[in-house]
Amino acid sequence: MTDNRTAPIGVFDSGVGGLTVVKEIMHQIPNEKVIYFGDTARVPYGSKSKDTITRYSKQIVRFLRTQNVKAIVVACNTASAYALDELSKEIDIPIIGVVKPGAKVAVETTKNGKIGVIGTSGTISSETYTTYMKELNPAIDVRGKACPLFVPLIEEGLWEDPVTDEIVKRYLTDLMDSGIDTLILGCTHYPLIRKTVQRIVGPEVTLVNPAYETARELKALLSSHNLLSDQTSGLGTNIHQFYVSDAAERFQIFANSILKYGILSTKAVNIETY
Ligand code: DGL
Questions:
Q1: What does the DSSP assignment read for 117-134?
Q2: By Cβ atoms counted within 10 A, which residue in 82, 137, 204, 255 is the most buried?
Q3: How many whole angstroms from 164 Cα to the centroid of ligand 1?
Q4: CA-CA distance, 17 to 3, in Å (whole number)?
Q5: In whole angstroms, what is the distance from residue 37 CA to residue 13 CA?
Q6: Distance between start and end Cα atoms, the chain
């Protein structure tokens, strides 16, 4: 195992969405360096099979290992749902996904035992959120709903727009009618339309953001392995590195709209060679 507290943390996603997790990591553990990989050539993951997502995820982990990362965060919900177990078997550094932290806090949050989960078709059909929550409390009633139009709307920048309101209403009406009091935003992109979702579901439903919970658990995980960085990075400086499998410039524009610090450069990697 790499025993290097100043080594970076590898974070990956199918594209830009995982930057919502990076944002939380930067905020909650600002001394940590991040090496991010966005699989922009092969996005979306949400409509692909478990085998394909597992193969992609293994390649990305191999790439991140070449960067000497001390831990890995699977920032993509779909990859966490499909591939985390397989990945965990193969590596000897700490690895964490976004599904388990989100599931845990949802079970702690609900008062009436009815929880909704929204995500990609892959995440919802895998039922991984449901499995984790039922492990914690078998009596929990979970309702899942795939919302495949949310990702393109968000990537088009329609975070607050009548069209998005309409689509959110269409997808979430059945969930609301079922009486849930907690809703997991089970896709990397969804925290970006959190305000719209909250307005439509109403204040009585608590939204769970797995990105936030993952950064919290990551901090605890690093600490338990004595891997938390004790170096002050110098806030405002750019210590992080970004890699993609395609369209680096487009990634960079979106990334700069999400993250607080400007991204100096994004490099392209031929991920199929890993
Ligand atoms: N990052 C994906 C997730 O969180 C959403 C985008 C995609 O389908 O690849 O599930």
A1: EEE-HHHHHHTHHHHHHH
A2: 82
A3: 18
A4: 29
A5: 7
A6: 21
Q: Which residues line ligand 1 (CB under 6 A)?
A: 13-15, 17, 43-46, 76-78, 119-120, 123, 151, 187-189
Element containing residue 11 per DSSP (H, E): strand 9-13
91-128 per-position pLDDT tens digit: 999 999 999 999 999 999 999 999 999 999 999 999 99
Asked whether the beta carbons of 214 and 24 are under 8 A apart, the reply is yes
Q: Name residues whose C-beta falls within 8 Å of residue 245's C-beta, 6 or more positions apart in sequence.
A: 37, 38, 39, 40, 41, 42, 268, 269, 270, 271
Residues 186 and 82 sit within 8 Å (Cβ to Cβ): no
Q: The tokens 């702690």 sit on which residue?
A: 108
pTM above 0.85, yes or no: yes
For the CA of 119, the closest atom of ligand 1 is 10
Per-residue pLDDT tens digits for 6-53: 999 999 999 999 999 999 999 999 999 999 999 999 999 999 999 999
Residue 2 has pLDDT above 90, yes or no: no
- From residue 212, alpha-carbon distances to 112, 165, 178, 187 in Å are 23, 24, 26, 12
**Partners of 144 in the β-ladder:** 117
- The closest residue, in CA terms, to atom 2 on ligand 1 is 76
- Nearest-CA residue for ligand 1 atom 8 is 46
